[in-house]
Amino acid sequence: MFAVIVPYRNRRRFVDLFLQTIPVYLHESGHINYHIFVAEQVGSGPFALATSRNVGARAAQDHGQYDYYVFHDVDILPVRNIDYGPPALSTVWFMNAGSAKLPSSIFHAVNGYNNSFIGWGFEDTEFWHRLHIFGHPTQEWHKTHEAKQAEMLNLECQLESEEELMRFSQHYFGFAEDVGPRFVQNSLCSPESPGFDKTQDFYIETLVTRNKRLLDWIRKLPTAIAQEYFLLHGINAINPATMSLLYRTEKVSWVQYNRSDVLT
Known about the structure:
By secondary structure, this protein is α/β, with parallel strands linked by helices. 34% of the residues lie in helices and 20% in strands. The chain has a single domain (2-262), classed as Spore Coat Polysaccharide Biosynthesis Protein SpsA, Chain A (Alpha-Beta Complex), CATH 3.90.550.10. Helix 4 runs parallel beside helix 6 (205-219).
């Protein structure tokens, strides 16, 4: 049994496509024991991916027993050769840079993501760093055998040709030949799929700079002190009493939260 955790804000067209596509793909791949948790941030302030992932994981923890978590961006959809099965090692870069697939026990052992990271940028790198600090080895998905022929749809790449997408994929994932994961065109990718201006919500230059400074400071901490810091800054700060369940079906739970309320 696994949980798919999706941080979300202000991208309704994308989340609708996500919830239409993922259950079908998982069913066709033979996966029936899963549950999707959409963690929607409401209220003012920039979108904080780290907190949204923690909220989704806390909702999953309160809902049932899940062997592993798949942290999934709402604008990335699988097309073919994507393995949602249990990871042999904690897997980072699962389909894109910020996502991950790892045992739930390890996620909670390292206390999840750091809520001090606001907006987007370096919250994932800090998470991978804490995995290593606590002695949990990781693997980069895009360098594994299972990813060699993987194809995904990036909903932000709306009008690019296959050649442009291949060049982007080679640059993004760092491979030189036709032997790596790639983004492809798809019928879902059309002019009707709206773009999204990240600079207005969470990809804010001043926040990225701030996050980078925080990451640099954390990386300099001695191991024992870093472990103490991580155990103070993470999913344990999430107050589930402030989370609202928007709706729940057999396979989907949608929770809403205000960041100013959900952090204890």
